[in-house]
Amino acid sequence: MTPVYPVVRVAHRGASGLYPENTLLAFEHAVETGVDVIELDVQLTRDGELAVIHDARLERTTDAAGWVRDHTAAQLRQADAGLGQRVPLLRQVLPWARAAGVRLAIEAKGQDETESLNITEALVAALAQASWIGRAIVTSFVPGALRRARAMEPRLATMLDPSPQDGNLSPREICEQGLMAGANSLSYDHTLVTPAVAAECRLTGLALWPWAPNTAEDMRRLLVLGVPGIETDRPDILNQVLLGLS
């Protein structure tokens, strides 16, 4: 029997606390550790491919330079994303994830709302073509991008990252942003998740998945608050914490 965990275990950019983020190596190790969902990010290349990479520029996570949008997919595949890994393309990740039996939370990036909308449209089209609508969550900081995603495909699950994530939003304001975006879940900086934020999300009917708690102490604090999902760079630690609860 498959174990039932008290939270959805989400690998933030894969097992990115130990392996290069947003690479197949990080995704594979997350699955080996044990996760329910892999969170990843996509940007559009010059030739219209969806590349799995967080930043709009290449310098932080690869040995290449410049804007992702100025490179073709083939050019990006020449870059080293760490430990000899290449920048994956979404069309490569989808069949791998299906075979691995893991779901995906895919963030449509973009430097502005127009770019985010373009990436979102390409993403929803790719998910529909690959019959992935029922197994993916489209995430974004841009409410309009999520509304566009749901307009294209009403069956699609969506997740908003409320803005700004600086502690100045009230619990109600956080939830209202999600509701106005038509989202069914929220991603929020774990350091800003207070008992009041967790309670308001729960009572409003929005699933809250705090991102990047990477210590056992932080994970336990969130579990006590009753959050339904945790996005972490260290799924190995999360599983250790959950094992201790059983």
Describe the model.
- This protein has 246 residues and is of the alpha/beta class.
- It has one domain (8-245): TIM Barrel (Alpha-Beta Barrel).
- It is 38% helix and 18% strand.
- It contains nine helices and nine strands.
- The protein has helices spanning 24-33, 73-76, 90-100, 113-129, 143-152, 171-180, 195-204, 216-225, 235-245; strands at residues 8-12, 37-44, 50-52, 103-108, 136-140, 157-160, 185-189, 207-211, 229-232.
- Strands 1, 2, 3, 4, 5, 6, 7, 8 and 9 form a nine-stranded mixed sheet that branches.
- Helix 5 (143-152) links the parallel strand 5 and strand 6 (157-160).
- Helix 4 (113-129) packs parallel to helix 5 (143-152).
- It is globular, with a radius of gyration of 17 Å.
- The chain starts with 7 loop residues before the first strand and ends with a helix.
- The mean pLDDT is 97.
Q: Could you write a compact summary of the structure shown?
A:
By secondary structure, the protein is α/β, with parallel strands linked by helices. Helix content is 38%, strand content 18%. The chain has a single domain, classed as Alpha-Beta Barrel (TIM Barrel), CATH 3.20.20.190.
